[in-house]
Amino acid sequence: MSNRPWRAAVAATALTALLVSGCSGAAERPSPTPSPAGSAAAPSSSAAPPAGDPAARAAALVATLSDEDLVGQVLMPYAYGDSATKVSAGSAAGNQALAGVDTPADMISKYRLGGLILVGFSADDPTKGNQETTNVDNPKQVHDLTTGLRAAAGRLAAGPAPLLIGTDQEYGVVTRVTDGVTLLPSALAAGAAGDPKLTEAAWRAAGAELAAMGINVDFAPVADVLATRSTVIGSRSYGSDPQQAAAQVGGAVRGLQAVGVAATLKHFPGHGHSADDSHQDLPVLTQSAEALRNGAWPPFSAGMDAGAMAVMSGHLDAQAIDPGTPATFSHKLLTDVLRGQLGFQGVVITDGMNMPPAKRWAPGEAAVRALNAGNDLILMTPNVGQAYDGLLAALRGGALPRTRLVEAVTRVLTMKFRLAETPAAQMSTLNSPEHRAAADALAAAAVTVLRGTCGKAVTGPITVTSSGGRDGTRAALTAALTAAGAQVKPSGGTIVHLVGYGDGAKDLRPDAAITVAMDTPYVLADAKSPTLLATYSSSRASMTGLAAVLTGKAKPSGRSPVAVPGLPATTCGT
User: Fold this and answer.
1) Could you give the residue numbers annotated as active site?
2) How far is it, in rounded angstroms, from Cα 23 to Cα 26?
3) How many CB atoms lie within 10 A of CB 214?
4) Which of 395, 428, 461 is the last residue of a domain?
5) Residue 140: partners with Cβ closer than 8 Å, 6 or more residues away
6) Does residue 21 surpass a pLDDT of 80?
């Protein structure tokens, strides 16, 4: 279903909320009297919004909130600790430095937070620069954590609207929860498969598992078109063709949101149009406005039309539109273009405010600038107390218009109430046969032959080798080959060599009969093997699909979604 009618409804309801509460002063609100960073007041029984339309419920609730509550609802920081209320001494120290509290639950209570992002590390993670800690381990731990976080948020004045709990579960190289869940192949693999229905089914399965663990916002899918050889975006993108990527993004959005998880299109206005890394510096987009409109924005528009509830603004300098200003802080890009030209009226979320392009300003000033530009949620501020105090001071001093803050909070609460309408799946669905089958189907359809005979099975024993540090993936392929009936030997067989994220010519094996690219396939241009394959992903599902192709049990039907010099998109016909 298109998101455009909902976008119009939210805009109209936000206007109603502004008329109700936007012109009133702080003294006219039911406001507690602690210091700006004081503890939250208990929710008033009169604050319970009426049942019915989420936007109407949001407007009713917004009208009851104090200044402190409004400011808290636009903050979505990270926290240290794998439990809401019991953390290690080290995690408590981290939370004290970040927010002046000991636990994640304390942080929610003190700052009346609208949401929290769960963070963590994964292998080959290009976003590790802004992952300060990890608080995801296994599904049960995540479920217990999210349950505790929601309990703390339920005691706030905004408690009738459930806490937003998000994470970066893109699958592929950026995957926060990796154990005990169904792991999809990367976005680039889905692009190679080229079937939005397979993508939608896989993301529906994955989304159900996120919801079961208590996560209701996924900072995915990546809507960036891979117009450059960006290593920070790479296989996180669905490919270099804007229209084909658009179809895949739409499928992912529909799958996620069908099971009650908000999809977040990122990174507007298009991180794939620069090869630089915003985790290190401010990437510059040198393309014309028309080139961005035609080459970068189709996947964002498709995601919006599929109903995407959120868009993430990127720390990107689009010189043709607002030169020198990161998009995160650009009114021209977020309000004039994203909302005005593209018509999006859902929730706009900043990229991590702990990244270098956002840290050119102090946390309070950065948060105010981001809200005034058109963001509705401030993600991963480097200091929660400073961001909170800065926003509150700007609201009371006039630097942050009350109408802008009320509009942002109305959007946030509307999304919360919409998400609450869909019951979460049970934990028993995690990594179920049905979910694995959806991931397997997508991964199998992605396997591509870029050199060699289409679908030719390997005869005789197979020896699996890999570039350094990929023992787990090598073991996964060995197991999949064995299950498919192949004989795998430590040496002496047909050599199948695996390369992945960050690998180059030095990681290739000249004597390999078959070289397989498990990330972007560009490295295959330097490979000498007579047969070149790509899975674009090292997930278990991708290794199962690869084994089926190597043993002749499946035809490799994928097409490379990016151009590799000297190689066709596939040797398996057109």
Assistant:
1) 279, 351
2) 10
3) 22
4) 428
5) 427
6) no
Q: Indicate if 470 and 424 belong to the same structural domain.
A: no
Helix (H) or strand (E) holding 270: none
Query: Looking at the domain assignment, is residue 14 inside a domain?
Result: no
Where are the alpha helices (H) located in 54-88, listed in sequence order? 54-62, 67-73
Residue 33, domain member (yes or no): no
Give 222's DSSP letter: B
**Measured distance CA(66)–CA(69) in Å, rounded:** 5
For the segment 54-93, what is each residue's pLDDT rounded down to a tens digit?
999 999 999 999 999 999 999 999 999 999 999 999 999 9
Residue 291 φ then ψ, to 5°: -65, -40
pLDDT greater at residue 455 or residue 23: 455
> Do residues 157 and 256 both lie within one domain?
yes
Q: Is residue 478 part of a domain?
A: yes
User: DSSP secondary-structure letter at 143?
Assistant: H
Shared-domain flag, residues 379 and 521: no
| Separation of alpha carbons 45 and 418, rounded Å | 22
Task: Say yes or no: 202 and 342 in one domain.
Answer: yes
415 and 466 inside one domain: no
pLDDT of residue 109: 98
Looking at the structure, tell me whether residues 394 and 476 fall in a common domain.
no
| CATH number of residue 359's parent domain | 3.20.20.300
Confidence of residue 43 (pLDDT cuts 50, 70, 90): very low
Q: How far apart are CA 283 and CA 297, in angstroms?
A: 17
Same domain, 394 and 489: no
- In angstroms, the CA 245 to CA 300 distance is 10
pLDDT digits (tens, 9 = 90+) for 254-305: 999 999 999 999 999 999 888 565 556 788 999 999 999 999 999 999 999 9
> Quick count: other Cβ atoms within 10 Å of Cβ 491?
8
The pLDDT value given to residue 573: 81
Among left, alpha and beta (phi > 0; psi -120 to 50; other), residue 496 is beta
pLDDT digits (tens, 9 = 90+) for 223-241: 999 999 988 899 999 999 9
Residues 386 and 517 in one domain: no
In a domain, 324, yes or no: yes
Residue (of 91, 108, 92, 94) closest to 147 by Cα position: 108
Q: How far apart are CA 172 and CA 170, in angstroms?
A: 7
State the pairing for strand pair 448-451/531-534.
antiparallel
- Which range marks the domain in which residue 468 is found? 447-551
Closest of 332, 339, 337, 331 to residue 371, by C-alpha: 331
Give the whole-angstrom CA distance, residue 310 versus residue 346: 6
Of 371, 396, 428, the residue that ends a domain is 428
The number of domains in the chain is: 2
Q: Which two tokens stand for residue 455?
A: 């679908």
Which residues make Cβ contacts (< 8 Å) with residue 151, sequence separation at least 6?
84, 105
